[in-house]
Amino acid sequence: MAAILGAALVLFGQGIAAQALGLIDRIPEIIATFKERLSESEAGARAVALAESSGMLAGGEAQFLGRGLGLIGSTFGAIANLLIVVFFAVFMAAQPRPYVEGFLYLFARNKRDRVREVMHEIGHVLRRWLVGQSVLAVCVALLTGIGLALLGAPFPFALALFAGLMEFIPYIGPFIAAIAAILVGFSEGPQLALYVALLFLAIQMIESYVLAPLVQHRAVYLPPAVVLFAQVLMGVIVGARAVAVATPLAAAVMVALSMLYVEDALGEKNAKPGS
Q1: pLDDT higher than threshold 90 for residue 198
Q2: Residue 147 region, left (φ>0) first, then alpha (ψ -120 to 50), else beta?
Q3: Would residue 47 count as lying in a domain?
Q4: Given this model, what pLDDT does residue 236 score?
Q5: Exposure pattern of 104-113 as b/e (b: 16+ CB <10 Å)?
Q6: Is the per-residue pLDDT at 202 higher than 90?
Q7: Is residue 36 part of a domain?
Q8: Contacts of 202-205 spanning 24+ positions with Cβ under 8 A
Q9: Is pTM beyond 0.85 here?
Q10: Rounded to an integer, what distance in angstroms lies between the CA atom of residue 33 and that of residue 11?
Q11: Which range has highest mean pLDDT (53-62, 176-185, 218-227)?
Q12: 164 domain residue, yes or no
């Protein structure tokens, strides 16, 4: 996986980075075009006025610049946090035994073997989930990039990368990626925006009825209601950033509940999710 990722970065990294920077530079123009096209109708003009009065759309250049600088600062902060998480994850993954054994000391001796089994199963489920979502993300990114390129949409590879990354946030992520691509297409014209919307609808249908069943058969299946509840709960308690980890956290919690409560307390067997 590291070799494939490295090869992809070498071959396409420069082009994707250039498109991403170009997309960022065109954000003010896209917003202005979106506001202009909406203002052509009476209902759209009311929506624009309501958005500007509530602060959702910046009215002046200074206000937009301030928001842009804040967005840049938050982006660098998110990158720094990601690097810290990756740094600690690499060290913990390289030698997991000291951390596992240290955690087991928090439990009584007669419970440690069972807790070790639970931790091993949680790790197994999370690995399967990560591999499954990675496969779906790559497939969605490829389909999105090819489709947007054939439609002649601007920044197809940057939007495809964004769609692939959003695939790690089930249900909510694909919707956000589709909205972003439709807005970019709308800046070129309503017809292109319609084609982009139909493209994302077709990709979502392919994912839901073809790709996801094949991947989930070998990965981990979580009921949609459980995933959505976990996303809403994490968003309310921790914040919007925590939505990205809501699904793997829900999978880990379900494993712990199934093994420690359903199997041990209630006496049921083979209750682990995804098994």
Answers
A1: yes
A2: alpha
A3: yes
A4: 85
A5: eeeeeeeeee
A6: yes
A7: yes
A8: 202/147, 203/140, 203/143, 203/144, 203/147, 204/174, 204/178
A9: no
A10: 33
A11: 176-185
A12: no
Q: Six-digit token pair at 157? A: 């590879």
Domain annotation covers residue 13: yes
**Host domain of residue 21:** 1-57
DSSP secondary structure, 213-261, as one string: HHHHHHS----HHHHHHHHHHHHHHT-GGGGGGHHHHHHHHHHHHIIII
Predicted confidence band of residue 87 (pLDDT cuts 50, 70, 90): confident
Q: What is the mean pLDDT of residues 84-91?
A: 80
Is the predicted pLDDT of residue 19 greater than 50, yes or no? yes
CB neighbours of 57 closer than 8 A, spacing ≥ 6? 31, 35, 48, 51
Closest by CA to 138, choosing from 225, 203, 41, is: 203
End-to-end CA distance of the chain: 25
What Å distances lie between residue 247 and 129, 151, 222, 234, CA to CA? Answer: 9, 33, 8, 10
Give the Cα separation of 121 and 226 in Å (integer): 19
Residue-level pLDDT at 62: 43
Report the distance separating Cα 256 and Cα 122, nearest Å.
7
Number of folded domains that form the chain: 1
